[in-house]
Each structure stands twice: as structure tokens, then as C-alpha cells.
Write a structure and sequence with these properties.
This protein is α+β, with helices and mostly antiparallel strands and 178 residues long. It is built from seven helices and four strands, in the order ααββααβαβαα. It has helices at residues 2-7, 10-14, 28-35, 39-48, 63-74, 92-101, 105-160; strands at 18-20, 23-27, 58-60, 88-90. α6 (92-101) runs antiparallel to α7 (105-160).
Length: 178
């Protein structure tokens, strides 16, 4: 385990996981950086083994997605800093498959660290879902009690309201003789 932390800290990996098209993915350039290979080498290996990467393992960002993503992440495009070609986005399964096409000890160790990070993220999300569920249950209970409390307050207000003045009767009143 100590060897994994030396290779790539989980925090570094977490910062390189993005939500694109509803999937948690890592981009080819970030993976290449972690594996200590050039992005074009990683892409070349993927293209040579493309049958291992169906659409639920990897997809290429459209030009528009790439521009929006880069602007969102980095603000402005810096000349020479970002590729003119849209990156590949790898899902968790795609990252796992990369270890079989990038046949190096570092690729294997980095993939293990990445897989552990994805598992950790799933655990965190599952905890958040449980908390959200409990919170919604509590809100429903409170809403029910709110209605009951409102009814109680309405009844108290009615009891506290001053009694209405009796209406004067119109017409002859025998007690005064008029």
C-alpha cells in the first residue's frame, strides 16, 4: 500500500476525474501524465487495440465538448498548451483496460491506484445518497408535523380571539319601555 501512495496520491487522481456525458472519466492527457508516457503514445496504443475499448469504456470528446471543457477547467486556451485534437475520455472500465495495452510495471501500479480511487469515490457517493435519503425522510416527517402544528396554532388563535360583540337587536325593547 505504501508503494501505491508513492506512485500517485489519491488526491492527485481525484482531481483528474471529471463528469462528462454523465460518466466519471479521465482524459488521455492526464492518464499519459500519470503513466509517464506521451499522450500520442497512449492514443497510438489505444488505436492499435481499439476493439478493447467499446463506447462504454472510452469515447472521444467532440470539438465543442472539448472547447467547453477546456474553458470551464482552465479559463482560456493557451497556445501550445492544449492539443488541437479532442481527447479520449476513459471510463473506469476503460482505464482498467489501459493496463493491458500499456504493458509496463508503472501502468499496472498506476491503474491499481486509479481503481482504488474510483472505489473510494463510489463509497463517498453512496454515503451521500444514504444521507440524502435520510434527510428526505426527516423532511417528510417534519412537513407532516408542520401541518399538525399549524392546526394547533389555528385553534389557539381562535381561542385567543376576543369574543365578537353581541349585535344590537333592531326594534322594540321591552325593558326600557320604548
Amino acid at each position: 500500500m505504501d508503494r501505491m501512495k508513492e506512485i500517485v496520491p489519491q488526491e492527485v487522481i481525484q482531481q483528474k476525474i471529471f463528469l462528462i456525458r454523465g460518466h466519471k472519466v479521465m482524459l488521455d492527457s492526464d492518464l499519459a501524465e500519470l503513466y509517464k508516457v506521451e499522450t500520442k503514445q497512449l492514443k497510438r496504443q489505444v488505436r492499435r487495440n481499439i476493439e478493447r475499448f467499446p463506447l462504454d469504456f472510452m469515447f472521444e470528446l467532440t470539438q465543442e465538448e472539448y472547447k467547453d471543457f477546456v474553458r470551464c477547467q482552465f479559463g482560456t486556451l493557451k497556445r501550445g498548451k492544449h492539443s488541437k485534437y479532442p481527447p479520449y475520455a476513459f471510463t473506469e472500465q476503460g482505464v482498467a483496460m489501459l493496463s493491458s495495452v500499456l504493458n509496463s510495471e508503472r501502468a499496472i501500479l498506476v491503474n491499481i491506484a486509479i481503481m482504488r480511487t474510483f472505489v473510494k469515490l463510489r463509497e463517498i457517493l453512496s454515503t451521500h445518497k444514504e444521507l440524502a435519503h435520510k434527510l428526505s425522510q426527516l423532511e417528510r416527517k417534519i412537513e407532516k408535523h408542520d401541518g399538525e402544528i399549524k392546526t394547533i396554532f389555528d385553534a389557539i388563535r381562535q381561542l385567543m380571539a376576543p369574543p365578537e360583540k353581541p349585535h344590537r337587536r333592531i326594534g322594540f325593547r321591552p325593558e326600557t319601555g320604548k
